Amino acid sequence: MSENIDLKRGLDIPLKGAADRKVNAVVSSGTVAVCPDDFPGFAPRLLVREGDRVLAGSPVLSDKKNPDILVTAPVSGTVGSVIRGDKRKLLAVVINADEKREYVDFGARDLNALTGDDVRGLLLRSGLFAAVIQRPYGIVADPSLKPKAVFVSSFSSAPLAPDSDFALGDEAEDIQAGVRALSRLTDGGVHIGISRNNYSKSPFHKLEGAILHIVSGPHPAGNVGVQISHIAPVRKGETVWTVSLLMVAAIGRLLRTGKVILDRKVAVTGPAAVNPAYVETLPGTPVSALTHIGEGVRVISGDVLTGRAVGKDGYLGFFDNQLTLLREGPEREILGWAKPFRPKLFSASKSYFSWLTPGKKYDLDTNVHGGPRAFVVSKCFADVTPMDIFPIYLIKACLAGDIEKMEQFGIYEVLPEDLALCDYVDPSKNEIQAIIQSGIDLMIKEMA
After folding, report:
1. Which of 52, 158, 167, 329 sits CB 3.0–4.6 Å from 365 for a disulfide?
2. What is the pLDDT of residue 339?
3. How much is the pTM?
């Protein structure tokens, strides 16, 4: 049985540089990095030293707060270096990869014979439990809890997002196994959001043992948080888990093969990308190995709204299957916003004439065309937030550090990614996602 979620509010940003539906290369880098910052709420303890031998699936990091939660190596090889930052913060464990990958064998499993405890234990030992994210707060899940339900979005509506049917369509069997395994962890079922645009052609509408929801509307329709808000909003004292479709496939492969296999198709996108298309690679691969990166280009692991700028020397994020390249925009415009015609810019508020050419794609750069200033109270945030919250009041409550008001206005329901479009449309140029994250950090500190 399927349920319909029809969203009206939101915004699709018409950005140039969508990836062609083809795989340009299979990239096997000589080095792969494991980065603790990829795992929100994870306090890393280093389990290896430089020169240690690891296999794909060997523990590399554990969580100081919950030692059962591990992060494991995506490749076999030798630990080449441990990179630290200010105050000896652990930034990355770099592994010199073998030419031929060797795996820890966790043993293939018969799903019919597995209990919830069996699945949880296998995910913990393999390191894939770190891919399970808990709401509220968007941190690595607590394995001692039993969630109200598990939620998966089978598509992304973010700018230039990878086509899930192309990137993961040939892994339907693994995804089916992953869904069945996740259903053992909750009594509330596994809820999967599927795009209405290609519902009948998508291989995911045939998934068994899941509750399907057909979703339509502009971005952020593909955000799992938005889907949760229309299915079963998270209230105080409740816990739900979310897993990306990419990680559901990895869980299914683990059950079917007994191995941690994290290979994925990654969409190289953006106006500054040369021949945007897909590459097959692993998380932690240096971004410089995935595509040519020119001068004056910002490299983002993820999409332009929620991804992380990693630079030319950075690595592909653990949860990411998209790389976005944008031109830096340091120059200042003559007359700025007062120009009567700006045909090369897109406007969400019809300030320019982009609304007359709805099919046009734009070569946008990183220039925000102004600096932060006092909040302008308007309905622009509500227009792009298809959730039953008052975003402007939640943002102000986070700025004030008022926990009671944050609870009242929906802090348990949101993550920064759910309000990413507010960053884009804000006339005051404030970093809305950073403000929401500061509120979440305060909630974790005070409510723990």
Report:
1. 329
2. 65
3. 0.95
